[in-house]
TrEMBL record:
The gene is hisG. It is found in: Cytoplasm. The keyword Transmembrane does not apply. Catalyzes the condensation of ATP and 5-phosphoribose 1-diphosphate to form N'-(5'-phosphoribosyl)-ATP (PR-ATP). Has a crucial role in the pathway because the rate of histidine biosynthesis seems to be controlled primarily by regulation of HisG enzymatic activity. It comes from Wenyingzhuangia gilva. This is ATP phosphoribosyltransferase. Pathway: Amino-acid biosynthesis; L-histidine biosynthesis; L-histidine from 5-phospho-alpha-D-ribose 1-diphosphate: step 1/9. It is an enzyme of class 2 (transferase). It catalyses: 1-(5-phospho-beta-D-ribosyl)-ATP + diphosphate = 5-phospho-alpha-D-ribose 1-diphosphate + ATP. Residues 213-282 form the Histidine biosynthesis HisG C-terminal domain. Feedback inhibited by histidine. Residues 51-205 form the ATP phosphoribosyltransferase catalytic domain.
Length: 285
């Protein structure tokens, strides 16, 4: 029987959330510290703990079958690698930044300038599209230091809170694109392994859906139920059950997490009482 080989980041920002996702998929991994390969006990899966930057090549060569990577890494090093699923964590931007004293107007600032970055392919493509000529300094990390030590006039790097830019006297000039963790696969994946990937992806989708919704239970007078149902359409339609007390019903449904508080306010205004909400572990439509 074949085994699916998944690469995840050995240590760093993607490691914990990637392992958590596999755990929520019901996959338990026997992993001892410092071991770079581990086997799952209850799913035909081998986990390889690697450096992010190395993973695209392993996928291209079919050494590993699938991986969890930042979209930014695919853009930089894995042009042929498809996004199988967006995973919703490690959200960040890849941006151009300049010293905060610069009177930045538009991208033409970078014409003839020196830019420090770890993302040279991404930057080259971006500036080519914008018809800007600049020189690059490739550095592996702590890119934000470059303008301060006179190495560059600007940088291209990951921005999340903006704290690192601020602490180093820089400001964001252009957002090149947004990135998040994604599941990707090898271009040479066998049909047999694709079946395993489909099985894993089904589990991941159930988790991601569950994360995006909340389960809600509430009590309402019968004459308000119709209005309440209008604001909480649910998966198919809400469950409405009679309460022991005459004239009252219990309504059960799911609501999107990003509209949670607005919907709760509406429900209260419509006369809902005893509102309980809870997280959803998995959700299959
Ligand atoms: N500040 C941040 N906020 C949110 N996501 C981030 C942030 N910095 C990086 N990321 C995302 O997490 C990924 C991993 O970043 P991390 O800094 O842990 O690894 P790396 O230095 O790029 O790679 P390596 O595994 O080779 O050390 C990045 O590719 C990006 O997608
Ligand atoms: O906008 P912020 O929230 O400050 O995050 C951005 C910083 O986070 C990342 O670095 P990381 O901490 O991963 O260090 P690294 O350079 O060693 O990878 C990135 O390279 C930025 O420096
Ligand atoms: Mg980093």
């Amino acid at each position: 029987m074949s085994t699916l080989k998944i690469a995840i980041q050995k240590s760093g920002r993607l490691n914990e959330d990637s392992l958590q996702l596999l755990k929520e998929c019901g996959i338990s991994i026997d992993h001892r510290n410092a071991q770079l390969k581990a086997t799952a006990r209850n799913f035909p899966l081998e986990v390889f703990y690697l450096r992010n930057g190395d993973i695209p090549q392993y996928l291209e060569d079919g050494v590993v079958d699938i991986a969890i990577l930042g979209e930014n890494t695919l853009i930089e090093k894995g042009e042929n690698l498809p996004i199988v699923e967006r995973l919703g964590f490690s959200k960040c931007k890849v941006s151009l930044a300049v010293p905060k004293g610069v009177d930045y107007k538009d991208i033409s600032y970078f014409e003839g300038k020196r830019i420090a970055t770890s993302y040279t392919n991404t930057l080259e493509k971006y500036l080519k599209e914008k018809k800007i000529n600049a020189t690059f300094h490739k550095i592996a990390g702590s890119v934000e230091i470059a303008p301060n030590i006179g190495l560059a006039d600007g940088i291209c790097d990951i921005v999340s809170s903006g704290g690192t830019l601020f602490a180093n006297g820089l400001k964001e000039a252009e957002v090149m694109f947004w990135s998040e963790a994604v599941l990707t696969k090898s271009p040479v994946l066998s049909a047999e392994k694709q079946v395993l990937l489909d099985k894993l992806q089904f589990r991941i989708q159930a988790i991601l859906k569950g994360r995006a919704f909340r389960y809600v239970l509430l009590n309402a007078p019968n004459n308000k139920v119709e209005d309440i149902i209008k604001v909480i359409p649910g998966m198919k339609s809400p469950t409405v059950l009679p309460l022991a007390e005459e004239g009252w019903s219990s309504v059960h449904t799911v609501i999107p997490k990003d509209k949670f508080w607005e919907i709760l306010d509406e429900l209260k205004a419509l006369g809902a009482e005893g509102i309980l909400t809870t997280e959803i572990e998995k959700m299959v439509l």
